[in-house]
Amino acid sequence: MAKSIRGRVGAAGLLVLTLLCQGCAGDGEYYRETPHAAAAAGETRFRGDVSVNNYYALQSAVIGMIGNSRETNTIPISSDYEGSLEEDLARVTQEITTENPLGCFAVASIVFDQTRVLTYQELTITIRYKRLSKEIAAIQECPSLRIFESRLSELLSGFGDQGFYSISGLEEGEEDLYDRAMRCWYSAADAAYGLRDIAILTYPETGAKRIVEVQVQWTASRQELLAQGEEARRQAKQICHQFQGETLEEKLEFVRQYLAESVEYDDEAMRVVAETGGRQAKTSLYTAYGALAEGRAAQSGMAHAAKLLLDELDVNCSLVWGRRQGVSCLWLRVQSEGQNCHYDPTGSYGLMDSQQAEQNGYEYNAAAYSFD
């Protein structure tokens, strides 16, 4: 005869046991005995499976199911199981749904059905997911923040709408990760078009190992934004055909003068930047397309346009996103005589060393950038 013990463990880690017994009524419990045919000598229901004999083996079995998006699995429980199985069922559910990154990200609930059959026990695990299997499979391992930034840049430059990343050694909160994502977007002049919003979620909210979900919204379709990028590069190439100088100073002055004379600086757009903390939708005004194709741009659009123009003029430079006098600002680092200098094409300071840039109100996270 077989006695079945049914255990349910919800997200709060509570284990509820109902004894199934035939012929009993009252208090919501009943007993049921069902005939059980003994297995043939040497035969078990778990061919090739290793029985679970402690908490860590149990935890590994559940995490393995989640990684494979498996909804149900039945595993044998060793007769010499170490500790209390019922307590471990509650513990494993608590830890997976509140501490384990994959569990926090993917699992809605876990149900355990425990059955004793003659000389052995079996445990049926049923997992209900809050994520699609394709989302679980899409999680990318990122052993470092540098690798995370690289993959995030790929997502943004390809105008993707969602990414999932498993990051190790993570100390940053969601706000810091948002800033990191914005640096990736701002730093890619070739693809910095049409960003409406970036949302960052982490699972769990804190911890050195987390899954980071990045959700991206765009102001237009991928095809439209790619077309804007192509047009901005075409315009940059055409504009630079007019340049006849040679020196770095002449190139920088050519770019500054072109932007000052040919592009209308949008003061209203900069007011929006100040009011929203730089979180406004990045319409064409904030991109190289607005500056080079439409002839009107905010400060960041001017800086992106300057990057495309200087690329055409073979100037070694990189974009830097930070703040000037507390307002979101974009400028460039330019190599001059072996030194990295700051250069704001909308300012009147020319090339600045780090001390001069700081004195003029430019602030940025220097540790987040590495310049060749």
What does this structure look like?
- The chain has 372 residues and is an alpha+beta fold.
- It contains twelve helices and 16 strands.
- The protein has helices at 55-67, 85-98, 101-106, 133-137, 145-157, 174-186, 222-240, 248-262, 267-276, 288-294, 299-312, 354-359; strands at residues 2-9, 15-21, 30-31, 72-77, 107-117, 120-129, 140-142, 162-167, 195-203, 210-218, 264-265, 296-297, 317-324, 327-336, 339-343, 362-363.
- A six-stranded mixed beta sheet has the order 3-2-1-5-6-4.
- A hairpin with a 2-residue loop joins β14 (327-336) and β15 (339-343).
- The longest helix is centred in the middle third of the chain and has 19 residues, at 222-240.
- The N and C termini lie far apart (75 Å).
- Mean pLDDT is 86; it is low at 1-48.
β-strand number: 16
Order of helix and strand elements from N to C terminus: EEEHEHHEEHEHEHEEHHEHHEHEEEHE
**Which residues sit in consecutive blocks of at least 5 with pLDDT less than 50?**
1-48
Shape: elongated
> What is the radius of gyration computed over CA atoms, rounded to a whole number of angstroms?
30 Å
Instruction: Specify the helix fraction band.
Output: 25-40%
% residues in beta strands = 25-35%
Biggest beta sheet attributes: 6 strands, mixed
The averaged pLDDT comes out at 86
In whole angstroms, the N-to-C terminal distance is 75 Å
Helix/strand/pairing category = alpha+beta
Spatial strand order of the main sheet: 3-2-1-5-6-4
Number of DSSP helical runs? 12
